[in-house]
Amino acid sequence: MFSPTTRMNDSSYSDHQTNLRTKWGYTMQWTPQHLSQDEVENLRAQFDERGAEALQRIQAIAARLGPGEEGSKPDMFAVLRDHREEDDFLAAFWEHLHAVPGWVDWEQIERGQRFFARYFMANCSLFAFQAFVRDNTATPGVAEVVSRTGGLAVKHLLTRLIETFTWFIQITHDLQAIQPGGQGHSSTIRVRLLHSSVRQRILELEKTRPGYFNVEKYGPPVNDLDAVHAITLFSCNAMWDAMPKMGIHPTDQEAADFIALFRYIAYLIGAPNDGKYWADITKAKATFESMVWYELVPNETSKILAQNFIKWIEDQPPAYLSMGFMEAACRWMNGNEMCDALGLGRPALHHYAAFAGHNIIVASMAWAQRLFPSLDRFVVAYTRKTLHNALTQHVTGPTVPTNGTPPYSFKYVPNHGQKMEVDAQKPNLATRKQRFRPFECVFTAAFLVAALLSLGLAVGAVRILVLLNETFGVTSWIYGGKEN
């Protein structure tokens, strides 16, 4: 039996008298709305069966149609869209995807879409230094799937990042984008079919080579627990973990709106959606904290994935971020315990100062946007336009050849011999060491300015106190009354 206060392992702490629990430095108040171990295991054992069945039927139609032009891969979404009337199940599946649940409030979802552009720089840091480094790598089931699809190998990482950000831009660009028939809506269906493809391929390999993927331990690949965790990661980390660490505290209304957007995304992606997980911010926070408590268990694969991520992002244009800065960002966002478990280095103090400067900038912008609504509208509109033009056109344009591969398709097919290792591939650091790092310089300058202002205010306050004391005897009042 556990004593009233129990340390579960090196990273978790539970007080059974107050229901306070701490995991990886995050303290939560455990309530009946948090998931139990049995609920978590039930989610782990289940998956999107409707999507899996739809994929098999789409594949059968695609096989009958034959290869596309010049032997290109079939576009599963296009096959579903164009041939759904040939199969009653696919027709019903399409109808389900385009039906709008009664709990959807389009005005609220439109407000939720603005959150990404409103705090764009903070969201980028969240995704890079917490979502990818912690949640994608330290969740064993997710890490094992990712390692088998090559998505975080150094040579594939940039494509994976661009695809993820492109999808995010598509679903948040405007309301029409996420409504049935919009680009974000269609891209989300493509992602659902991709998840079914990943699961199908890994399970096929497990049948022919037992032990390739431990289904008993991790559940089916891309299972319902993974889906709940992913939706929670995208919608909740910002509210109660990442952004507060950067000095930004989203309002309850912002949290409710953004979570409402991702509850609809969960519906499209085939995640469990019975109202238990994201119906309101209280349930959403309980779901988020349940994922922190149960799911963050880094292993050796986690270390490899995290190190490959940091290795590739180092000195990539246009930011040219240093290894030290990224390690400082990771430790600031995730804590030393987690980063030590992932094998990340301990950077010098000036790297922490640079990331502190980053936080000063994003927090100051957030404050200014709340103070001046016209500035907020400008930032949201400008960010949306710039990102949509830069990233979406870059991914789909002539600068990135698709080689006949549809968007969000199964590019990195698992095979028996595939094994994820610390990737030796890395651009030539001999030339990169001489690069100017503009972002870090700006962040460091922001920190120095803030430090000098704080010092100046402190000195000014002391001088005022001295002057008041000389004039009115303020110090004697403080320490027991004015002297005669």
TrEMBL record:
Gene Ontology terms for molecular function: oxidoreductase activity
PANTHER family to which the protein is assigned, alphabetical: ER-BOUND OXYGENASE MPAB_MPAB'_RUBBER OXYGENASE CATALYTIC DOMAIN-CONTAINING PROTEIN, SECRETED PROTEIN-RELATED
Native source species: Lachnellula cervina
Transmembrane intervals: 442-466
Domain spans labelled ER-bound oxygenase mpaB/mpaB'/Rubber oxygenase catalytic: 131-353
Keywords: Membrane, Transmembrane, Transmembrane helix
Presence of keyword Membrane: yes
InterPro entries the record matches: Lcp-like (IPR037473), MPAB/Lcp_cat_dom (IPR018713)
Protein name: ER-bound oxygenase mpaB/mpaB'/Rubber oxygenase catalytic domain-containing protein
One Pfam family here: MPAB_Lcp_cat
